Amino acid sequence: MGQPKAVRYYIMAHVVIAMCIVYAVLRLGSFDISYSRLLPFIIFGFLFEILRLSAFTLNNEEFAISAGAAVIMAAILLFNPVEIVLFATCYGISIVLFPRLTSIYKTVFNVAETINVTLFAYFVWHLLRTSQSILDYHNIIPLVLTMFVFVLTDLLAITVVISLASKTSFLSIWKESLDWVMVSYGLIAFIGLILAAVYEEFYL
After folding, report:
1. Does residue 98 sit in helix, strand or coil?
2. Which residue, 28, 58, 72, 87, is the most exposed by fewest CB within 10 angstroms?
């Protein structure tokens, strides 16, 4: 059965925004792509998607969270915009591959939404950071704000599409199902911050 018209419009909006952001990124200039650095993050992103935990059930459909948010957060802090686009595209596809391939609508949405959220958080980090080193104490506030923006925008985007698809009140979903999810997601993102700092310290 096809998705409601509101859902299709919402997905289309995400796709258009993603295309505009990617176009703007490509216009910013040339960026080096380190495939040796990208590949481990892509692999770990896929693996974490296999290990998703059930978050809540709505209208007999189960929604889950994964530790992949930690990998995404680390990528936001470590990668340049082009690397983030490549990583986010692969990660968005992995979300719908496990445990099985789902509809084209879900695939397109997850890829576009992942690109939008990760690049938006990256721009916050890029504009606010005051030192190249993640561990520099001057970056504490930029790190916290970047993590907050990533968690909030991701959960908001997902909650909207769930609300539209299930025809359930946005506030009802948030209040009944996502309060603890946001806390859990925030903790996972914080682990990603630590992962990025450790990676920067020992491997860059």
Report:
1. coil
2. 28
